[in-house]
Amino acid sequence: MKCLITGASSGIGLSMAKYLASKNYELILVARRKEILESLQKELPVKVTIYAMDLSNEKNVYKLYENVKNENIDILINNAGFGLFGKFVKTDLNRELQMIDVNIKAYHILTKLFLQDFYQRDYGYILNVCSSAGFLVGPNLSTYYATKNYITKLTLAIYEELKHAHSKVVISALCPGPVNTEFNKVAKGKFIINGLDADKVAKKAIDKLFKHKPLIVVGPLMKITLFLVRFAPYKLMLKISYYVQYRKSKSVN
């Protein structure tokens, strides 16, 4: 069995790589930081192929697919991504566009290309690492939330299409709450909610994927939040979301 993981150098992606290695999966790991990938290649007890590339460059996304399309991959895990704290009127436009390229375009392209291959052979797993943000609005983290809404809804729509086509291909959206990763450092902010353990999130995500769960929500607080979204007035949810996103950051006045 073989799995491709993007954003594999840290956080959930790294934890997933370690968990799948413990199950003897061959891995293809993708991230920007070559030195970390090389360390993983030496440390993990399975065959590991690495690609050090920036997926905000659309050409690299297509290049990645071309390099691995004949590898008979069983699982695609789209995990690369980042956020940016700050009021929309002040956040850097170029950084936001880069985020859209990684969080949306890279996911969309890889999901499309691998899904077409998987659909043709009627087998394969796709796990899109989304977020509980995929069901909410995120003041002060607005672009990130918007990207996760896109991928979450896209994934669930594809799931329904596959179901009606009686396809054996499985696609799932992982929607955890905040996780203890490098997210805060990269996004230049800090959540007031304690983060979940990345290893536990990764294990649950992989296990639920193999059980064909379309939506994988991790963390009791997030399960409660998503339940409330169905019934709470929209303006109230906006206020709650604003409070949840409150953080101490130099980028926010």
What does this structure look like?
It is globular and about 50 Å long. 49% of the residues lie in helices and 14% in strands. Helix 1 packs across helix 7, helix 3 runs parallel beside helix 4 and helix 4 packs parallel to helix 5. Strands 3-2-1-4-5-6-7 form a 7-stranded parallel β-sheet, with helices on both faces. The protein has 9 helices and 7 strands. The protein has a single domain, classed as 3-Layer(aba) Sandwich (Rossmann fold), CATH 3.40.50. With 253 residues, the chain is α/β, with parallel strands linked by helices.
Question: What's the quick description here?
Answer:
The protein is of the alpha/beta class and 253 residues long. It has helices spanning 11-22, 34-43, 58-68, 93-121, 142-164, 183-187, 198-210, 220-229, 234-244, and strands at 2-6, 26-31, 48-52, 75-78, 125-129, 170-176, 215-218.
List keywords for this structure.
single chain, 253 residues, alpha/beta, Rossmann fold, 7-stranded parallel beta sheet, 9 helices, globular, disordered C terminus
